[in-house]
Amino acid sequence: MHVVQQGFLYARPPKQLLKWVGNKQRYAARIAALIPGSFGKYVEPFLGTGAVLGTVAPNRGLAGDALEPLIGIWGLVQCEPATLIRYYARTLEAYLENPHETYERVRESFNRDPNPLDLLFLCRSCYGGVVRFTTDGKMSTPIGAHTPISAVSFAERVHLWRERVRNTTFVNADYRDTMAEAVAGDVVYCDPPYAYAQSILYGAQQFDLQDLWGAIDRCASRGAKVLLSIDGQKKSGTTELRIDTPDGLFKRRMLIHVGPSMLRRFQMEGETMEGEIVHDRLLLTW
Question: For residue 47, which of 174, 216, 199, 214 has the smallest C-alpha distance?
Fold first, then answer.
C-alpha cells in the first residue's frame, strides 16, 4: 500500500462551501487525479459537501444524498443562489450580535422543521463542522469556537460552486438508487459513513457496509469505474483499521494522509492532537 501523490488533472475549488467533518476539500484533487480524463457520467451517491464533485466539475453529473435538507442546499446553489446568500447574511448579522442565542434559535428551527437554510448556517457555525444527530434525529452539536466566514466570502463561494456544479443533477435518494444509474464508461466516487466513526454522526445510523459492497459490485459489472474512500489508519499510522472487502472487487488500494482527526478533537475537548493523525484508505475497482 502506498501514499497517493498530488495530481493536477482536476483543480479543487479554493474554498469549501460547507463546513463539515470528513470534508474531502483539502485532498479532493489527489482523489480526482485518479479519475480518467475522459468518462461518461460522474456519479457521487454520498454527496455531503461535494468536494470531489466540485473538483471534477463534470460536464454530466449525478449526485445524491439521503439527507433531504443537504440536497436542498445544493438545489438552492443551482437555482436560487440569491436566497442562500440573503439568508446567510441576515443570520450572520444576528449571530455576530448575539452568537449563542442566534445559534440556539437556528438549531431549534432546524430540529422543529429540517430545512436547507438552517442546516447551511448550522454547518458553518457548529463546532468543527461535526454535524451529529441524536437517536430521534435532532441535531445536537454545540456552537463552534470560530467565527463563521463573512457574508461577502460566502457569496463568492456560492457563485464559484454554482459554476462547478451547473451540469450536475441533484437527487434526494438512497445511495443504491443513485449508483444504479451508473453504466459502462461512468465514474462513481463513494464517500460513505466510515465504519469506525461514531454512529451519531450524520448518515451513520442506518448504514451497512455489506450492502455497499453489493452496490459497488453491480456498478463494476456494468462497466463503471468505482472509487471508494473508507477507513484507513489512525493514531498516526500505528493502528490499521480493518475493513474486510470482497475478494477481487478492488484492484488498487492506496492511503491518503488527511491530517488530525476533527472528530477526535471534538471528543478530546482541546487536548493535544499528537498521535491523532489519520490516513484514509482509497480503493479502486480498476
Answer: 174
Query: Which pLDDT band, with edges at 50, 70 and 90, does 225 fall under?
Result: very high
Measure CA 280 to chain center. Answer: 14
CA 276 to chain centre: 21
Are 227 and 34 in contact by the 8 Å Cβ rule? The answer is yes
Please say whether the beta carbons of 254 and 1 come within 8 A. yes
Task: Tell me what pLDDT residue 23 has.
Answer: 87
Q: Give the predicted TM-score (pTM) of the model.
A: 0.86
Q: Which residue is associated with the grid cell 466510515?
A: 194
Domains of the chain: residue spans and CATH: 2-65+174-284 (3.40.50.150), 74-156 (1.10.1020.10)
Write phi, then psi, for 143 (nearest 5 degrees): -65, 150
213 three-class SS: helix
The angle at the Cα of 211, spanning 134 to 196, to the nearest 5 degrees, equals: 50
Rg (CA), the chain: 18
Q: Please give the DSSP secondary-structure letter assigned to residue 134.
A: -
Q: At what angle do helices 81-97 and 99-112 cross, to 10 degrees?
A: 140
DSSP state of 133: B
pLDDT tens-digit profile of 276-285? 566 789 999 9
Query: CA-CA distances (angstroms) from residue 51 to 166, 195, 232?
Result: 14, 21, 19
Cα distances (angstroms) measured from residue 108 to each of 13, 111, 113: 32, 5, 9
Whether the Cβ atoms of residue 48 and residue 69 lie closer than 8 Å to each other = no
How many CA within 13 A on the CB side of residue 67?
28
* CA distances, 88 to each of 118, 157, 212, 279 (Å): 9, 12, 36, 34
Show the cell assigned to 29. 484533487
